[in-house]
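TA notes. Do not distribute before section.
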Amino acid sequence: MCELLVGNLESGDRLEALIFSAIYLKWINTGQIPCFEDGGHPRPNRHAEISRLIFRELERIYCMKDTSLQEVLSIRKIHPCLPSFKVEFTASVPLTRIRDVAHWGDIPHDLKLQIKHTIQNKLHRNAGPEDLVATEAMLARITRNPEEYSEAFVEQFKIIHHELKDFSMLGNLTEQLESIKESFDDRSLSALTLFLECKERLDNLEESKDALDKSIDLLLKTAQSLNTLREVIVKGLESSLRNDVPDAAIAMRQKWRLCEIGLEDYSFLLLSRFLNALEVVGGAQQLKENAESKNVSSWNGPLGSLFVGIRQLGLSGWKPEECTAIGNELLAWKEKGLSEKEGSEDGKAVWALRLKATLDRSRRLTEEYSEALPQMFPQKVEMLGKALGIPENSVRTYNEAEIRAGVIFQVSKLCTLLLKAVRSTLGSQGWDVLVPGAAHGTLIQAIDRWAVVKQILCYLKGAPGDEVTAAGNNIKGVVLLQELPHLSHLGVRAGQEKVIFVTCEDDDKIADIQKLNGKCVRHNTTSNFPVKDL
């Protein structure tokens, strides 16, 4: 892996090397690729040294002015897969505590042998992610009955488990942030303290109807404090590494980088929880009703959370100038609010149209991201998966999983909810185009599965989101009679298969579509009514 990356980063194959490495390391870390020993005896310090070399090269390329967006995305996927190279792991004989525990005096002989052969010897011969799994299993065994083993032995084994988590860089976000606290200045420390306080309050918040309003406010405040903290860390990572930088400084930079990536991952959870809470209090319908009564204060939370999501994308290197522009628009419309009149125009309509333009811009940003990934991963995932014997389902769903696990997915869902509310406020047609285009064919209703009939259009009453299209020369277009996030599994697959895809929620329009069942129709997403009888 080191030879592949370091040897190709200066060549025209740089992006390809990064993409293949990201795919391979993810499958290694998730156990999709089984690891076997080759008879060698490299101690964990060898892994740490290789990790440091790779990290240094990745950071160098990350900070270069000509680095592409695709390269940035690939590098960010590699970083969490690299082991730590702190000084204790690059020592000539690292992780020695396990040797002492394997010879502990007051534990049974068979337990000593098991620790020695399944953890100690394996760790010192050829360390890997599976060693942490074995250690966690052993820890669960020795703590199952509290008084079976001595407190001192259990405590030492817990320390070993913590050391392996540290080596694998798998500590939780709070632990990771606490580990870089000593390197912060006063302003950075203030941002860190605020975020950790908000996170602790959120973790301890009881789930109840009475706590729902507090939960929404606290989720937004936590997300905003996360934004501030991540901006501080990203700012600290802007400068590239000098050639003479000491090893300790490189190790600290790795911690900073993983904290920055960890904050991005945590923002995904915050936005997901915010969306769930928003649906509980009425979702798009409630926002629409409030807008109708000229009370748009309830929109501040959803717009604030969208601002956070957009800012997170920019901090991750995805079109930062565009993200900044969208964020500025959101803040401006939020501050301006809704007026009774704007000139001679109805203030509510102008407010909604202005907001819709920014939301459409936000959606285009998410769609451009979802279009970039299929150009990067699928072919290489299939090639590598076939060579390494990866299960077919893991290969087939790799791209969708990458999208759905990222902040981009939550931003897309927020856009869907807000656009639905805006369209309702404007009294618009109720259509939402996921994949544009035009086609003609016979309209049928697909029940349970996609119909496999050539030159047809189909409509569905509902979709749980996990269907796989049978497109190609079969289905030409789809009308889904419910809302669907643009970056949902079904939406992404339809885009990949070039299947025209719209959703409709208007009851009158749905009734008109159903009357066309079995007839030859034209499907054109630029029309006011995308499905018309020929």
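Switch to the second chain here.
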Amino acid sequence: MFERITKSFKWFYHEFGIASIHETGRNAYLIILARTCRMFAYGTNALILAIFFSALGISDHQIGIFMTFTLLGDVILGTFLTLVADRVGRRRVLLGGSILMILSGIIFAVFENFWILLLAAIVGVISITGGDFGPFRSIEESILSQLTIPSKRADVLSWYVTTALFGSSAGSELSGRVLRYLQSKDGWSEVDSYHALFWIYAVMGTVNLGLVLLLTDACELQPVKESYTQLSQDDSTSTLAVSAEDAEELPEAMPANQEPRSRIVQLFSWFSDRLAQISPATRSIMYKLWFLLAVDSLADGMVPYSLTNYYMDEKFNPSKSTLGDITSFSYFLGAISASFAGPLARKIGLINTMVFTHTPSSAAVLLFPFPPYLWLTAALLLVRAGLNNMDQAPRSAFIAAVVKSEERTAAMGITSTVRTLAAMTGPTVTGLLAANGQFWIAFVAAGCCRLAYDFGLYALFVNVKIHEHETKPVELPNGHDGRRIPDEEMELQSLADTDSGSEEMSLEKEEPKIVSLQLPSGSQRIRSRSPHRAGDT
């Protein structure tokens, strides 16, 4: 009996990727725990943020404007911090974000003036959607992608999402219970009880700060080491050495096609320079993905969980504890389902996992405003939330698989920026609709946008080979070995073979490619050695 239990535990330990976290090491545990605490805080204010402003007498239109400008602040702050993170230091950026989170929580716990709260939300870190916008997520995903080996990456990212949803679930449940307890006490008004939740938010920011301080130097971008490629050639060929310094001079010798920058566009030159860090081959894929993510994020911005709770509160007027229970259970279902994202991706592929799990969630958003009963509306919310997050870990793994290691922080930062920028227009539209008594239209429009994202994702990426940027081992004549494949560039080999869900995509069925010898760029040096000379000696 004991052996059977042990065997089952070992199966769960390995099949669901817990072993992958252990093999990644201490930093992975710290990052996952930090995000769990942060999402706990986001779960507390996602339940009551719109309701809090309504209790202050702020109109629905102003609530929408507040959320739009908050997301705008996330775009500016998140873009700046993620693009300089590798240069300034990833841990320093995470520390700065934690401090801003603490300050925002304190201001919301003390003040009630709309403009002060708006300024704190724009400059600081406040989640109006219940999601992890801002500088944290893209940097943490880049760190985890660097720390993990390719075959373990999807599992680690899956638990990075799963534990965060457990945190959101616990935060929503606690907030509902705390509100019910405080509002039942004498001397506590409804607004006072909302202020108390923001003190919890500030405390979680402090915990996040402490966990970031424990991260090690391994989380920073590691310098690329010099490597050598051996080329076999005839006796008449002499030794050729290309140094990193010579390689850096090559771009200067090439004719520049850039036009002189005018003063008008100087404001955008910094962002353009950072975008240029991403190779053209990567950008060709990411442009399509960014467009689809913008459509999906626009929908999420129109009906974030804070506005969804506000809609149910206005339509059915349940108690805050009941509303908290519904929100908490929806996050809990999302956490359970997200734990299956890694194993499912290994079975059917990354893109199939993203599409087949997200489509029912999108349909639930489309149908959300039509049921006349609270229990049926809550059931649709559970379907939406339960399946909504199963695409997050596969999406991060997909981006890590098509982006080179030195491009990941910038690519993931721009991805976060595009999503936030698209989402920021949603709350204003929803606020205008709600002010005119047409709140329900926001859910219908959001559901249609999400379905368009799902179908577009499948059409454009189902046959994409996510391993194309990898360095392949090359067998050279005369017994010479090819270049060694760096571990960090072998992107999800076990998932790559099944990404299209078809056996026809396997590597074994690819036609052999003709090997051509080229001069490597960057910091590589080439040493040529004649096999005949080696024989003469």
